[in-house]
Structure formats: C-alpha cells, structure tokens
Amino acid sequence: MGQSVPFRPPKATLTAQNGRLVLSEEVQHALSTHSPIVALESTIITHGMPHPTNLSTALSVESILRSEGVTPATIAILQGVVHVGLTSSQLEQLSDPELTGTVKVSRRDLGAVISMGLTGGTTVAGTMFIARSLGIGLFVTGGIGGVHRGAEKSMDISADLMELGRTPVAVVCAGAKSILDIPKTLEVLETQGVCVASYGDKNDFPAFYSPTSGYKSPWQISDPTSAASLIHTNLTLPEPLVTLLAVPIPSTYTVEGQEVQESVEIAIRESVEQGIDKRGKEVTPWLLKRVGELSGGKALRLNVKLIENNAAVGAAVALELNKLEK
Ligand code: PSU
Ligand code: MN
Questions:
Q1: Which among 220, 232, 238, 246 has most CB atoms closer than 10 A?
Q2: pLDDT tens across the length of the chain (326 residues)
Q3: Quick count: other Cβ atoms within 10 Å of Cβ 250?
Q4: Which domain of life is it from (predicted)?
C-alpha cells in the first residue's frame, strides 16, 4: 500500500527575501502609502525601439507620470532579479545596444530568465503578470501584441491577449499596431472577456499610428473620471476583469500616420517573402524595426508621441482610480 503524502504548496520564488525581487524605494513608498502608481513595460526598451530613443522615451514617460504625482514602476529582469522601479543607470544599462543576449520576456519566459540569471525586457504579458503580483492595477504601454495577419495558418497570437483575459491589470494603450490583424485581435479580446473602451469623443478602435483602424470598440469613455470608474468596476466584479483603454494618437499626426501605414504594408509583404513570419517571438521586433527603416524615422517619432500621450492619459486615470481604491 502506498503511503499518502500531505499536499504541500510550493513556496513562492519571487520574493524580496530571497533576492529575486527588488522594489525601488520610490515604488516601495508608493505601494505602502497606497499612492497612485502605474506599471511600465520594458520590451519596448530592449526590443521595440532603437537606441538612444528607447532610453529618452523611457525617461520621458517616467517624468510625465512623476510630474502628475504618479509613481512610475518600470518592470524588467536584470541578471535573474525582477526589478520593479528602475534607476536611470539601470534604464541606461537595459537600453544599451551593446548589451547582448537580452531576452524578450513574455509569461512563458519568466521562470527561465529568473532561474538562468538572465537579463530581459518584459512584454505586456510579462509585465502584467508581475504588476498583478504586487497589486498594481494600472499599466501604460504603446501598443499591445495581437493576432498576426495570416494567423489562421501560423497560429501567431500574442500571449498579451490571453494575459488580458486572465490577469486583472487595466491597460492603457494606443490600440494595436496595423502590422496585426485588427478585426481578429478584437475578436480574440471579446472571446477573452476583455472590456475594450476607446478614449475620447469617438468609439473607433485606434491602430497605433492612426487614430482609427476602421473598426469600432464596444465601449467609449471620454474623461479620466469615467475611465477610472469603468476600470474600478471591472476590477471589483466577483471575478475581476481587464479594461483595455484604447487612446487614439492625437489628430495632429493623422497625415504622418497615413504615410507610416504604407511602410507597414511593405514591411508585412517583405516578412512573408523572407519567411520572417514563421520566426515566433522575433516577428514583432523585426516588423517594428523594418517599419522604422522604411518610414525614415517617421514611425519612431509618432511612436514616441503616442506613448507620451498614453502616459499623460494614464496619469490622469491613475489619480482618479486612486481615489476609488481608498
Ligand atoms: N507593439 C509595439 N511596440 C512594442 C511591442 C508591441 O508597438 O514594443 C512589444 C510589447 O512589449 C508587446 C510585445 O507586449 O511586443 C508583443 O510581442 P509578441 O507579438 O511577440 O507577443
Ligand atoms: Mn507571436
């Protein structure tokens, strides 16, 4: 007869005590005083933008948040240690193009990167996972991953969409990039139970460089107070739900956005011709880089503008949300 062994749940690996988690003083203070705080991702620094714009944008987003009284919590993994809140020298280190072997860290990669002592930038999915474990309820980024064009064959659907379906952290973004299949992305978001709301006076679902994708969001929100109310209500349902607040790029950039769109179409065609579309996690960084080259820097300029805009909206929402959480 076999002996029965009592079930013992494993101990968490991600703790400050075992040195696998480090919170900056600023983040520690914000969490302990329940002050407004916003999580920020780092794949955009390591794999999403070229140097030195990756660094200047990371710094500028943080300073936009701070100037509104909101603590930025940029999340990354440095030599196997999860950092929440980075010093400017850590941001510099992460953005350095000479730094080789930096991993793009999605949910599936977290344990591997920590156990192997590696350094990496966390994606939307990876960042949400860590933000949630600390009780951070709001996250600002540029664009989320989504369903890739041709996904009916490749099955390339970003883990971001599944994370949005199961990890209760509200996300502010500029929609999904037009390198993706927008209608299929919206379908999967619906299937995953994500509350998608456009921010502003229209319900168009934005497509990153462009304020409209040609598709609609199911909901529309026009000010920070209503956005916070929606986010808070979703987070406090019996099973918390994610709100994806889709903020269109300011209309001043509409013409430039249309020009960038042409580069997007060319980059996608090239990725199929060269078989890049079959390279898993490399697909998104490759397309982002190629659009940057083809657009002669225009895409990058818009990318910075829209992230800064998202940070400003995110800060206003964070302040309102904080009042409801008290
Ligand atoms: N979209 C962008 N810039 C980015 C990304 C997406 O416009 O830097 C990054 C984000 O970190 C996002 C990730 O979570 O790419 C999605 O990658 P994938 O499609 O491999 O899941
Ligand atoms: Mn993918």
A1: 246
A2: 677 888 888 888 889 888 899 999 999 999 999 999 999 999 999 999 999 999 999 999 999 999 999 999 999 999 999 999 999 999 999 999 999 899 999 999 999 999 999 999 999 999 999 999 999 999 999 999 999 999 999 999 999 999 999 999 999 999 998 889 999 999 999 999 999 999 999 999 999 999 999 999 999 999 999 999 999 999 999 999 999 999 999 999 999 999 999 999 999 999 999 999 888 999 989 999 999 999 999 999 999 999 999 999 999 999 999 999 98
A3: 14
A4: Eukaryota
H helical segments located in 44-192: 53-67, 88-95, 110-115, 124-133, 151-154, 159-166, 182-191
- CA 94, distance to chain mean position in Å, is 17
How many Å lie between the centroid of ligand 1 and the Cα of residue 190? 20
Cα separation, 211 vs 156, in Å, equals 25
138 in Cβ contact with 168 (< 8 Å) = no
Ligand 1 in reach of 142 Cβ (< 6 A): yes
Is the minimum distance from the CB of 178 to ligand 1 under 6 angstroms?
no
Distance 160 CA to ligand 2 centre (A): 9
User: How far, in Å, CA of 53 to CA of 95, rounded?
Assistant: 9
What atom of ligand 1 comes closest to residue 158's alpha carbon? 21
Ligand nearest to the CA of 287: 1
